[in-house]
Amino acid sequence: MPIFEYTCLKCAHRFEKLQKSSTVTSTECPECGSLDVRKEFSAFSSAVSSSSAAGCFSGG
Ligand SMILES: [Zn+2]
Fold first, then answer.
1. What is the dihedral of CA 37, 46, 20, 33, to 10 degrees?
2. What's the CA-to-centroid distance between 10 and ligand 1, angstroms?
3. What is the pLDDT of residues 21-59, one digit of tens each?
4. What spatial distance separates the first Cα and last Cα of the chain, rounded to whole Å?
5. Do the beta carbons of residue 6 and residue 40 sit within 8 Å?
6. 8: left (phi > 0), else alpha (psi -120 to 50), else beta?
7. Residue 43 CB burial class (10 angstroms; 0-12, 13-18, ≥19)
8. Which residue from 45, 47, 26 is spatially nearest to 37, judged by alpha carbons?
9. Rounded to whole angstroms, how far apart are CA atoms 44 and 57?
10. pTM of the model
11. Is residue 56 included in any domain, yes or no?
12. What is the C-alpha separation between 17 and 32, in angstroms, rounded?
């Protein structure tokens, strides 16, 4: 299930919401409850085949 990102135009709060398949539902901001939200088309993070695991460098 794809996750769409929304940005509230009232309080500029950003949140994610699961979008049902072919289902139009009103999305409201969980912060202020405003319906003036804008759907952000965030680039889908395609799983890049990277065998090398990212190391954790802890700055000491
Ligand atoms: Zn809001």
1. -20
2. 5
3. 666 678 899 999 999 999 987 655 554 544 445 556 666
4. 40
5. yes
6. beta
7. exposed
8. 26
9. 27
10. 0.58
11. no
12. 16
In a domain, residue 9? The reply is yes
Range of the domain at 36: 3-40
Within-domain flag for 51: no
Q: Domain total for the chain?
A: 1
How many residues are listed for the chain in this entry? 60
Q: How far is the CA of 20 from the centre of ligand 1 (A)?
A: 21
Tokens at residue 53, please? 């695991």
The pair of three-digit structure tokens given for residue 14, joined into one six-digit string: 């950003």
Ligand 1 centre to CA of 53 (Å) is: 37
